[in-house]
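Project standup — Tuesday

K.O.: blocked on the structure for the chain from last sprint. Re-posting the sequence here as requested.
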Amino acid sequence: MAKFLLLAFRNIFRNSRRTMMTLFMVGGGVAGLLLVGGFFARMFWGLREHTINSGLGHIQIFTADHFNRDEVRALDTGIDNWRQVAASVKTGGHVRGVAPRIEFYDMVSNGDKSSVFMGTAVDPDAENSLGFFPTTFTSGHDLDSKSGGEVEALIGAGLAKSMNVKVGDGLTLLAMTSDGALNGVDVEIVGIVDSGVAEMDARSLRITLPAAQRLLQSERVTNLVVGLDKTENTDQVAAELAPRLRGLPQQLVLKKWIELATYYKQVRSLFSTIFVFLGVIVFFMVLMSSVNTLLMTMFERTREIGTMLAMGTPRAWIVALFMAEATLIGILGALVGVLAGNLLGVILNHANLHLPPPPGFTVPMSFQVLHVPSLMVGSSLLVILSLALASILPAIRASRLQIAEALAHV
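H.V.: unblocked you, prediction finished:
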């Protein structure tokens, strides 16, 4: 076997120029897949962490009614004993913290103009303990949970422009309470924020939890957001927390971040499909060009093949030799591609490049390439398989040559 492989290795470098061109082609295919796949992987990772740390959290806890029916009145599908539930969840392993939250839609007025807003009520201390970075401040500061914080509000940049307000101005929030009555509360704008999503900034407004409970006249919360030390621990923690939620007065439902991150799943599905399409293109490019190269090699070695057959070499051995040579070229090309792809990835990562903002966003996207071992293995196997398949036709044609014709070939 060792001599057989050594012979195959020597054969592939008979025509060094052709071999180098083949290696360049194969290596380029692998490097291209690594760069594209690494960019997609880095984008998926960044979008995942941004989605989680912008306020979604790793796990959210709701009542079952939250998904089974619409709210008739404010927070009638909210969690009653949320403090007890939060205390129980905090004792779990890998749990960084728990933040109560109220989500509601109501009206905001500046005295001259009214508009619908998408409200979120939070405990600032709990949110900060989870390391969330929900907003980028264009002016002002974050909510203060201490004395006087109940009247503070953060407003999206788009909504602030629409309502013609700035930091220090006041707004009136109008809402239907849990009893069906109309209630209002005055708030002071302490910060204008830019989340990077234009549609969200045009409607978002954030206040403290006590202010929302006073506005809605309810002690309930919409959900509890659980933050973990690592995203990779989400499945483990979810499995551990599920039994703790059973047997409570309210039927509670646990949702992992991936179940709530609709935009993330759509983006991942789209770009994964694009990457598979690119992989198919690379596969056929390598396959077709390799078939042509290997056929040329076979024709150049016709007399040699005839001599081997005349000396009693089995035809199956000829097939195996051609396939071994093609496979070795694939392995060498894969190594070249992996080295080139990783080197180019390092260079691009240090170039500090940025891409235009994605649709719906307002901030540029950093161009970074993630080095993914599974992607390196998969791309290498793809081109090796391509070369092995490309060698089948030339190998069969070589094994079927007639000895007399082969020896007479010029």
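K.O.: great, moving the ticket to review. The first strand starts at residue 59 and ends at 63. The chain is about 55% helix and 20% strand.
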